[in-house]
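In the laboratory, one determines a bound structure by crystallizing the protein with its ligand and collecting diffraction data. In a computational setting the workflow is compressed into a single prediction: the sequence and the ligand go in, and a structural description comes out. We illustrate the idea with nicotinamide-adenine-dinucleotide.
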Amino acid sequence: MHRPASIVLLTGAGISAESGVDTFRDKDGIWSKVDYRDVATPEGFARDPELVHDFYNQRRSGLAEVVPNAAHAALARLERSFRGRFLLVTQNIDDLHERAGSRRLIHMHGELTKALCAKCGARHEWHGATSGSSRCPSCQQVGHLRPDVVWFGEMPYRMDEIEGALWQCDLFVSIGTSGNVYPAAGFVEMARDAGARTVELNLEPSSGRGLFDQAIHGRASEIVPEFVEHLLAGG
Ligand code: NAD
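The predicted complex, in structure-token form:
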């Protein structure tokens, strides 16, 4: 294979699973215990805001108990060592990529460690709990803060930048994602249309397996570092 000049990587819940963060769609995943319509839609938030605040407050406080694993570390190493264009896009709302050292990173579904004011649109770093009585530090209004997380039916963040990078990339790597949630599940087709080589690294074949030139199946903490070493060695 030619050494790539521009890489886009997409990560999903599977890369954080071995750090102890629950995935969504696996047998014991979050959606087997909670109805996504209650906690991951604007309608659910309007119906019962405190339930939604509690759900994300628990996940935010849980970040203190998890650490990045070898797969997160390998992607940060790749970013540091790779000489071409590089973009890491994550669907994850945890902060494990940045804690591992990733910088050229887009959280397309938002971040647990931020709150968004639905009144003025400001985003703030938020490490404690949010509730219906939280005050926005920008507009000072009470009762409009929500987790800065993209819910079903909402538009993911920074799609123009992501699509621009996909059109330019010559290697696209999808890691730890089931390929069920659009638009992320469609990135592989955009990269293919742009002429990129496409690789899947996942525990099992994803929904889009047939769209990848190569698939390596196994635990992210093992297959991602191996893949990165191989890539940096020019393989
Ligand atoms: P998903 O739960 O649908 O799929 C996870 C995938 O990871 C599965 O295909 C599974 O086989 C694979 N996997 C599980 N353990 C793995 C391991 N050790 N190594 C490699 N692969 C492994 O999650 P998704 O595709 O990311 O779904 C997208 C949605 O889920 C997004 O909206 C995202 O925001 C949300 N989500 C985020 C987090 C997080 O922030 N860590 C966690 C769960 C879900």
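The pocket of nicotinamide-adenine-dinucleotide is lined by residues 12-14, 16-18, 21, 23-26, 29, 91-94, 109, 176-178, 180-181, 202-204, 206, 219-220 (CB under 6 Å). Keep in mind that any predicted model is a hypothesis to be tested, not a measurement.
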